[in-house]
Write a structure and sequence with these properties.
Blueprint: H1 2-8, H2 15-27, H3 31-34, H4 40-47, H5 51-67, H6 69-99, H7 104-132, H8 137-166, H9 168-174, H10 176-196, H11 208-211, H12 222-253, H13 257-260, H14 262-269, H15 271-283, H16 288-308, H17 313-338, H18 342-361, H19 363-374, H20 378-400
Helix pairs in contact: 2-8, 2-10, 5-7, 5-18, 6-7, 6-10, 6-18, 7-8, 7-17, 7-18, 8-9, 8-14, 8-15, 8-17, 12-17, 12-18, 12-19, 12-20, 14-17, 15-16, 15-17, 16-17, 16-20, 19-20
Length: 409
């Protein structure tokens, strides 16, 4: 895959190093968030806080994704992609160190820094892909989405064993080493690109109608609304399922807590299949709207399967995980290809994520509240189904006209 990209990308000799830097960056963009969950009981005991207070350490970053996306867009405009990503990685590293260095106030400040830093990356990476990998946006976005999920999975699996050996503070700090590696790699990649490449041409839209729509009129462009609703619905389902799936399996089929935790690993790792499956389908001539509907169909299997046959949860988790990885790739491939230029791409990325993560932040709360109100899991799973229906309708409408040339040429 890398050789295929390098043969066609206009980023020059530093393209491979840039791909590695993007992958390392992505490994750091979900891991610091999920690292708290495996050691949350240790954190609560050590910091003398309750469960709801401790929940801020996992929910605050998602809130930052919504609130800080406009700030991230401004930072990209003023500092440029290279400096913005450098600051983002340094923020992740500094926030990781501060979070584990003191009491609850330090943990909260560190978490806030991590959330804002990752928000910058959320907005920046689609713009970077559009600038340097426009002709292979699907494959590079798939690599990026896969690295996001792999980073989350590895951190979830290894943080608790590390904490058993070196304590929760050192275990959280240890992940700073991965951020440090990413900082060094990104610095070299950015320097090599400046030294060996002329400015890469911006991704050009294939849609004449969009080219005639001025970037300033962002909210007058229907596809932006569609992508925002589609991404928000996808993220609502993702965070709602991630937060409550182990508890659901424990309640419904009596699965032990540790065994139920394996569902999260399946859900995350299968995202790699979906992420690379989307560009594979697009190269076979399927339209972006058709691919998105396929993704939504797979997503539906998870809540419906858990309703009718919860004992088959490994299959439902595998299909749902495939879908969530594919949905992310499909949506942000559209973002890359519909942008008129880098400025437009930055603004679309920020807008889609600000609105989308606002919806996402309500996912765990809404699923939990419906469970408490109904005393079961039928209502929460139906709520996920409703969100996925919105994703299907909004996403397909955003993709339908004008058609994007998402297939690789």
């Amino acid at each position: 895959m890398v050789r295929r990209i390098l043969n066609r990308v206009a980023a020059g000799p530093g393209a491979l190093l840039l791909l590695i830097a993007i992958a390392l960056y992505a490994l750091n963009m979900r891991g610091p968030i999920v690292a708290i969950a495996p050691v949350i009981d240790d954190v609560r005991d050590s910091l003398h806080i309750g469960g709801s207070t401790a929940g801020l350490l996992t929910s605050l970053p998602v809130a930052c994704f919504a609130v800080a996306s406009p700030f991230a867009s401004v930072l990209l405009a003023r500092a440029g992609i290279e400096r913005a990503i450098s600051l983002s990685l340094l923020g992740i590293l500094v926030g990781t160190l501060i979070r584990a260095s003191g009491g609850f106030a330090a943990a909260l400040v560190g978490t806030l820094i991590i959330g804002v830093a990752i928000t910058v990356g959320n907005v920046a990476v689609p713009v970077l892909i559009g600038r340097d990998f426009a002709h292979d946006a699907g494959l590079v976005t798939a690599m990026y989405a896969s690295a996001l999920n792999i980073g989350a999975m590895v951190t979830s699996v290894l943080t608790a064993p590390l904490a058993d050996v070196i304590g929760w503070r050192a275990a959280l700090i240890a992940w700073g080493a991965l951020a440090l590696v990413a900082v060094v790699t990104w610095t070299r990649a950015a320097s090599r690109r400046r030294a060996t490449s002329a400015p890469a041409p911006s991704a050009k839209p294939t849609a004449r109608a969009d080219a005639q729509s001025p970037p300033a009129a962002l909210w007058r462009r229907p596809f932006v609304w569609g992508l925002t609703l589609a991404f928000g619905s996808q993220a609502f389902g993702y965070y709602g399922v991630t937060a409550w799936l182990p508890t659901l399996l424990h309640d419904e089929i009596g699965l032990g807590r540790s065994a139920a935790g394996a569902s999260a690993s399946i859900f995350q790792v299968m995202a790699v299949v979906g992420a690379f499956g989307v560009p594979a389908l697009l190269t076979r001539g399927l339209s972006s709207s058709t691919v998105l509907l396929i993704v939504c169909s797979l997503w539906f299997v998870l809540p419906v399967g858990l309703l009718v046959a919860p004992a088959a949860w490994p299959l439902w988790c595998a299909l749902g995980g495939t879908a969530q990885g594919g949905g992310f790739t499909a949506i942000f491939t559209v973002v890359v290809h519909r942008a008129i230029d880098q400025r437009d791409g930055r603004r679309i990325s920020a807008t889609v994520q600000a609105g989308g993560y606002t919806l996402a932040a309500t996912g765990p709360f809404a699923v939990g509240a419906l469970h408490d109100a109904s005393g079961g899991w039928t209502a929460p799973l139906l709520a996920v189904c409703v969100a996925l229906a919105v994703m299907a309708v909004a996403g397909a409408a955003a993709c339908r006209r004008p058609r994007e040339a998402l297939a690789q040429r």
